[in-house]
Amino acid sequence: MKKKESPYDVIVIGSGLGGLVTATQLAAKGAKVIVLEKYIIPGGSGGSFRRKGYTFDVGASMIFGFGKKGYTNLLTRALNDVNEECETIPDPVQLEYHLPNDFNISVDKCPNKFLNKLFNRFPNEKNGIRKFYGKCKHVFTCLDSMPLLSIEDPKYLLKVFFKSPLSCLGLARWLPINAGDVARKHIKDPELLKFIDIECFCWSVMPAIKTPMINAGMVFTDRHVGGINYPKGGVGIIAEKLVNGLERLGSEIRYRANVKEILINDKKAIGVKLINGEEIYANNIVSNSTRWDTFGLNNNNSLIDPAIVPKSEHKWSKNYKPSPSFVSLHLGVDNKLIKNDFNCHHIIVEDWDKMEDEKGVIFISIPTLLDPTLAPEGKHIIHAFTPSSIMNWENLSRKEYLQRKNEYYEFLIKKISRIIPDIDKNIDHKEIGTPKTHKKFLGRYEGSYGPIPTRKLLGLIPMPFNTTAISNLYCVGDSCFPGQGLNAVAFSGYACAHKIGDKLNINSFKLPD
């Protein structure tokens, strides 16, 4: 196969936040990029959709990365790099937990207020609580004091080291460590350890023993520093603004552009073939699909010829498995149901032993408490979701599928009623998404939220970087270092763009301000 001439330096497959940050960073440096998106809107699970005057977030409404200072505010920085900005609304409370044994606690932006609540619940663990969350703060301080935007470039790492040597050394010690190891070193109370498990699970879908300490340190501290800031107009506005910046810089995005195959010649990626037969060429191909979808791991659908899938990818698939997907319930309800001082984000756990099971955790968000413009006047949005495996949704008849959707709907309504009574009598609009919905529209293997370890691993060390064993082919997103969450995939986008930018010789020699 002979590579044809192309106007593009880089092809990005998929317009999730990781792919868009990669594309916009490269475009800002002068590269010509094309983003190929199979759906009709950008953002993937970080997108929004509109129905009957409501703007619903596809995924979570709890957003990190919109702070104003430091280096961990990656969404703010990514938008600024393409002369865009999101107006944000601060949320004074990250989460309100409704837990077994009448353990209810909210996580306030003020760290002392939150810690005092834990001290009151666990008076014998004051010292352990201070030490655990203190270690998290240390990790965050290291992260926030240096512009660590690439792990794969030794020259860049050397510059970062000379700028912040103590932070680099401090961060390196946490790379192989998980949050659960740190918690168990300082804390003995089993209920408090379960609480730290759900603290991790709410964003990593893993208990603390499998959650990397670096990720935990960032989340558990940034919520008190940069804070939780909701983008006015919905989460999808982030992707829309990144697309605006991309196009303003002369690059482009194409919708309904479903990539069927990554073209390989002489062990090098040279382009892509769309499902309609069109071929597009470039010297750099970035896949924002999951590694399972990119390399056909554990399934028969692959963007790469199975005969040339690198052994390293098969090894990765033994270390990581897809997390469960979700059943999502998007509701439009009368606003009289919810008081203005009600918290935006809630988690319900009724049985600690079932936390990781199907339906074991219920997530609830009411983003219209922060941005009323997302719903028609007099209405609120409630977004509730619970983990569910795609295996429970396959091989069903149409009648069985609809019946199961209704069973989950009734289950979620019952759980929401714990904190919002009479909800079933005040519903104006409803949308129900299943793992099959997420697989179809988000293009994610098994509709999964992202990869989780098959067993306890050494922190972030096993997570792969952006470069693959196939020349010119890169991966970006939550199956790359550092993992799941919008801010984490933004990091992977920065790192991927830096790696390709170094190859194209378009990176700035200076470190970011």
Oligomer: single chain
Main beta sheet? 7 strands, mixed
How helix-rich are the residues, as a percent range?
25-40%
Mean pLDDT: 94
**Class by alpha and beta content:** alpha/beta
- Number of strand elements: 21
Strand order of the largest sheet: 7-6-16-17-18-15-19
**Runs with pLDDT <50, length 5+?**
none
Any idea what the radius of gyration is?
22 Å
- End-to-end C-alpha gap: 44 Å
Choose one word for the global shape: globular
Strand content: 15-25%
| Total of helices | 15
Which key features would you list for this structure?
single chain; 513 residues; alpha/beta; 7-stranded mixed sheet; 5-stranded parallel sheet; 21 strands; globular
What does this structure look like?
This protein has 513 residues and is an alpha/beta fold. 34% of the residues lie in helices and 20% in strands. The chain has 15 helices and 21 strands. The strands form six sheets. A seven-stranded mixed sheet has the order 7-6-16-17-18-15-19. Strands 9-2-1-13-21 form a five-stranded parallel sheet, with helices on one face. The chain has a three-stranded antiparallel sheet with strand order 10-11-12, with no helix packed on it. The longest helix has 19 residues, at 126-144. The two termini are 44 Å apart. The mean pLDDT is 94.
How do the helices and strands line up, and which of them pair or pack?
Layout: E1 10-13, H1 17-28, E2 33-36, E3 48-51, E4 54-57, H2 74-80, E5 88-91, E6 93-99, E7 103-108, H3 111-121, H4 126-144, H5 154-163, H6 165-172, H7 179-186, H8 190-204, H9 213-225, E8 228-231, H10 236-248, E9 252-254, E10 259-265, E11 268-274, E12 279-281, E13 284-287, H11 291-295, H12 311-319, E14 320-322, E15 325-334, E16 345-348, E17 362-365, E18 379-388, H13 398-416, E19 427-433, H14 435-442, E20 451-453, E21 473-475, H15 486-504
Parallel strand pairs: 1-2, 1-13, 2-9, 6-16, 13-21
Antiparallel strand pairs: 3-4, 5-8, 6-7, 10-11, 11-12, 14-20, 15-18, 15-19, 16-17, 17-18
